[in-house]
Specification:
Layout (H helix, E strand, L loop, with lengths): L7 H9 L3 E6 L5 E6 L5 E2 L4 E7 L3 H9 L2 E6 L12 E10 L5 H16 L6 H6 L1 H5 L1 E14 L9 E4 L23 H9 L3 E7 L5 E5 L1 E6 L2 E5 L9 E9 L8 E10 L2 E11 L4 H26 L1
Length: 309
Amino acid sequence: MAGVRWSEQVDNVLGGDLTAALAYVTPAGGAVVTAVAPLGLRDRERGEVTFTTSLGLGKKLERIRRDPKVALLYHAREHGYHRGDELVLVQGTARVVEQPDADYLQNVLGPAAASYLGEPKTGRFWDRWLQEYYNDRVPVHVDVERVASWPSLTGAGELHVEGAPWPVDAAPPQAPPRNGTGPRVDADKAADKARALAHVLFGYRGADGFPVVVPVRVGDTGPRGFGLTSALPLPRGGRRAGLLAHEYHAQLIGLKVRQHTGWFEDGIYAPHTQQGYNAPANKTLLMLGNGFVAKQGLRKARKAAATTS
């Protein structure tokens, strides 16, 4: 089924940004926000955008299969091709391609990745070391149902919607977690690390089930967590929500990421889980690390699949 055919202005954003924030829904009704490199992969005529992921990230793929409603926020202009200030939120239904396709990897993904991330390392060692990183990636196609855009990267200005109308009603509050709503990791440290990075994004499940992702600013910390503010409306009432803070250099070298899931209520975010990493600001070291992580992730995914089969 064809999705939304978006405007040329939006297409310039989708084709130019080096990175986007992907949000997907958790079984408990929360959201996870993570950074992806969409590499300009989209089909305006079909109303489809695409990102890729590794088969080693089995938990992410499992959650997307379970609830395929996803969102991508195009929120950063560094080191890409587009220079406008538009903030663009794409919401749609994801379709995971279950097996890697050598032709797609070589003729579609390869050239796209080279134009954004530079030419891949090749040779006897690198071909073996990066085999899982390059060859075990699959595309996730998103049939776009709504494109929301604002004239400023902060979200300030008038909302423009293409496709399905923006929900009139706000998302209802959720029941609090059984283990309590307060922070389960050090909120002071989490806030400090998020503030230090260039982009902070907040994600939650919206009223119609699609994730919503908005840029936020991290405020003061207290016993309930740390404050979040945004030029865009934040949800009222308590709910499970995700947070992503990140920054990067050209070709995604020197990538720094902090991710949380947690509880948001009355403008306060209580982090419950955390993970993060600082990638080397050196492409050779980065590729060594990517190869190792891909091998480990795929090994774990295959072990988990064998256990459940």
